[in-house]
Amino acid sequence: MKPPAELIEKLRAAKRVAVLTGAGVSAESGVPTFRDAQTGLWAQYSPEDLATPRAFLRNPKLVWEWYAWRRELVAGAKPNPAHLALVELAGRFPEFQLITQNVDGLHQQAGSRNVIELHGNITRTKCFDERTIVTEWAETGDIPPKCPRCGGLLRPDVVWFEETLSATDLNTAMRASASSDVFLSIGTSGLVYPAAGLPIAALGHGATVVEINPQPTPFTAKVHFALAGAAGIVLPELVTSLRE
Ligand code: BV8
Q: Is the pTM of this model over 0.85?
């Protein structure tokens, strides 16, 4: 399905473009989204019950193993046409800011640069107490492993629910959204704040706001262009139309 000509016009005229991606962009790489039912062993848990500091302190082993399972999934995943189309799109505008809620690092693997990872990255590990990155630790069989410096518990370097995001990243993302000519919200259910506030800031500033999602979301009725389809299909079509 070709994108609307009016949208291609807007993109051709745009100087500043901001993009927010969610789990839907990695779905076609085989990384399950948050709204997908958790599979197998994890079917009985919901992410909100595991991705919090309290859940970790209540059962560090369980939470660590959930992330170890997800790291395995991510390690086997490759960027898909949606990630690759965003790399090409970035080269078409004087200013382009990619902001992701995903923690899988697939945008960087595809070649995207200067990516704002609002919720961190599952492949990085940090000390729960010192909040500093740890790259090596003794494999003593402890689950979770212990910090080599202070002996504290190690945890994934992601932003859990009820944890604050990096103020620097959030400010940069908010500024890029609120000054964008075109804002694309791709593969996100728009349920998690403050990330979900970015398309609202873009709308408020008068940007042309585009949503790419096979399903409707709380923003579908508010955006200028709602492209109902998979990111891995719609984004390459958008890039092809821009080349013409
Ligand atoms: C904060 C990292 C201040 C971890 C994540 C009550 C108490 C406490 C807090 C709150 C509260 N009420 C609200 C809050 C704030 C809370 C929040 O928003 N909660 C929600 C649930 C209501 N937010 C926070 O806590 C944030 N911090 O506010 O700090 C504070 C401090 C103390 C107390 C209060 C507030 C921190 C939020 C960050 C959480 N960490 N991830 C990890 O990954 O394990 S969030 C995690 O879930 C993801 O990162 C992502 O952001 C979110 C999932 O959203 P999506 O990416 O949109 O994925 P989803 O599965 O939902 O949707 C996928 C979409 O893709 C669907 O629409 C689907 O249709 C579409 N799709 C599917 N296939 C495709 C596709 N689209 C395109 N193509 C396809 N092929």
A: yes
